[in-house]
Write a structure and sequence with these properties.
- The structure is a single chain.
- The protein is mainly alpha-helical.
- The protein has a domain of 258 residues.
- Helices cover 26% and strands 5% of the residues.
- It has 17 helices and 8 strands.
- Strand 4 and strand 5 form a beta hairpin.
- The longest helix has 20 residues.
- The radius of gyration is 25 Å and the shape is globular.
- It starts with 19 loop residues before the first helix and ends in a 92-residue tail after the last helix.
Length: 539
């Protein structure tokens, strides 16, 4: 019955340890405006395709929504066969331990009704512990149980999109300085990173042809339980090493389309719906997040252009079930449900890329990306044109301005709390900040990253090799950091030569950076208190 409901693949995934350092380093690069990670090579994110292939969940179907109030505990008498005792009930949530203790063993003389009740309890436990755990990791809401009433109808829901919406919201909350724990499916996030960032993934044992035929390689998350005795390579043992590894990420070590590799294709036994590349809202009861497939087109094998402005979800991010006791979410979110219903008409499509999909810094998209985010600039290993989507475009020599009599400082073009010019937000494809309070909040996030597990200091001094070291994470700057801190004057470091696409040249004529002969400033040493690990509740 669990397989018929669409959750059968999850039962075959063994226990996999979560690398808290890796999760923390990824959360640091998450942007809630776009639901993407900002890596040196461009934007990337978890998509519906990853949910379908890593977890084996259905991603096409009805949105997961319905009632969240009422006497759901009484309904458990019919759907689960018993009513939880008062000491395990809190509102409409129950302890997962009660489900585990009471539904572990199926009676020998179980009827069809009893089997169905045990199946619902197991699915409810999977939702609360693996797919959509809250920050407590110990309770599950009974609103999901109501959708499990007819087990033959459960597979018609898009559980994959609900899992992804819940994970997006958990990552949105995870960047909050005051957030100590994080919810959501951390197994999905970790497997997604391991598939793409090869310098961070453990070595896994190869499957035999017999194992492949038997389907032991699907869903793909199952493969990551077959790690060698040396489970994690040294770069993943501390958060500082993971930060450095991501900063120095090379094109050959990041895979845009890992599921197209021959050794992975033979493992996939399920067809992925085209909805995996739709630009649509993701719905899970009170939660609505947007699936920004157009910002990560290379993950679907297409060439990446400058993306359009994302949906402004500031108001939706404030929505939760607290104080909304009698709200009927299918009616309240009707606008977004209509968009999801029309999902097959919102699929991205473009020219297939060549090579591995990587773009040279001189391309239009990378010029836009470099000028509107913060990525670490360090000495890169040489790569051939075969690794990139398009050959290297020749760059015209940059005219050198006359050095001013004193250091000149211009407002930064970097958004997200780094001296962001509000007037440029529409060009960047970001929602317009409505008040100064919003900008103060972003600056607060940039100054106080919630995930610095170890103290660090800024150091812009040359290393013995002649290159410059960089700050250990992308949010380690203040609203008063000069541009010279981001762009060392060394000729071996890349300096952007265009601030925007041609259609926005006039709006950015005054944003050119000036190169000064003054040495790079030395930042004062700062002692930062070590906060709690954001993934401490996950084992």
């Amino acid at each position: 019955m669990i397989t018929v409901a669409g959750f059968g693949h999850l039962l075959s995934i063994p226990s996999i340890d979560i690398n808290h350092h890796l999760i923390t380093a990824l959360v640091e690069r998450w942007r809630l405006e776009t639901h993407t990670f900002h890596f040196p090579l461009g934007e990337s994110t978890i998509t519906l395709q990853d949910v379908a292939l890593q977890l084996g969940l259905f991603i096409d179907g009805q949105p997961v929504t319905g009632f969240t109030s009422g006497d759901m505990v009484e309904a458990s008498q019919y759907l689960l066969g018993s009513i939880p005792p008062p000491n395990v009930i809190k509102g409409n949530t129950i302890k997962l331990s009660w489900l585990n203790n009471n539904f572990q063993q199926l009676p020998a003389d179980a009827t069809d009704d009893v089997i169905a009740q045990h199946a619902r309890a197991h699915i409810l436990s999977l939702i609360g512990s693996l797919l959509m755990p809250d920050t407590s990791a110990g309770r599950v809401h009974l609103m999901y149980m109501l959708l499990l009433a007819d087990l033959t109808h459960v597979a018609t829901y898009s559980w994959g999109s609900a899992v992804l919406a819940y994970l997006y919201r958990a990552l949105d909350h995870g960047i909050d300085y005051h957030q100590n724990n994080i919810g959501g499916c951390m197994l999905l996030l970790q497997c997604w990173a391991w598939e793409r960032i090869k310098t961070l993934s453990p070595i896994i044992e190869s499957l035999t042809p017999e194992d492949i035929v038997a389907g032991h390689g699907f869903p793909l998350a199952k493969r990551w339980s077959r790690t060698s005795s040396q489970r994690y390579d040294p770069p993943t043992r501390t958060i500082s090493l993971i930060r450095k590894t991501i900063d120095n990420l090379q094109s050959k070590k990041f895979l845009w389309t890992p599921y197209s590799r021959p050794d992975v294709v033979v493992l996939i036994t399920a067809e992925v719906s085209p909805v995996s590349r739709a630009v649509v809202p993701l719905i899970c009861f009170a939660t609505v997040e947007f699936h920004q497939a157009d910002r990560v087109m290379r993950q679907f094998g297409f060439r990446q252009g400058i993306p359009s402005e994302p949906q402004n979800l500031d108001e939706l991010h404030k929505e939760d079930m607290r104080g909304k006791t009698y709200r009927y979410w299918p009616e309240y979110h009707q606008r977004w449900i209509v968009m999801w219903t029309d999902r097959h008409n919102h699929l991205i499509q473009d020219i297939q890329f060549n090579g591995n999909g990587h773009l040279h810094d001189s391309t239009t998209y990378m010029q836009w990306y470099i000028n509107h985010t913060i990525r670490y600039i360090s000495a890169q290993e040489s790569s051939s044109d075969e690794d990139y989507d398009m050959p290297q475009e020749p760059m015209e020599p940059e005219p050198q301005p006359q050095p001013p009599s004193h250091p000149t400082y211009h407002p930064s073009r970097f958004p997200y709390g780094h001296d962001f010019d509000v007037g440029q937000s529409s060009y960047l494809g970001l929602p317009q900040p409505s008040t100064s309070t919003h900008m103060d909040h972003l600056r607060h996030l940039s100054l106080h990253s919630p995930h610095h597990q170890i103290p660090f200091t800024y150091n812009f001094l040359p290393s013995p090799s002649g290159t410059f070291s960089t700050p250990p994470n992308i949010f380690g700057t203040s609203a008063f950091t000069p541009l010279s801190a981001y762009n060392p004057t060394s000729s071996m470091h890349y300096r952007p030569t265009m601030s925007s696409p041609a259609s926005h040249n006039e709006a950015n004529n005054n944003d050119d950076e000036h190169v000064v002969d003054d040495p790079l400033p030395r930042r004062p040493r700062q002692q930062i208190r070590r906060p709690h690990c954001v993934t401490s509740s996950h084992k």
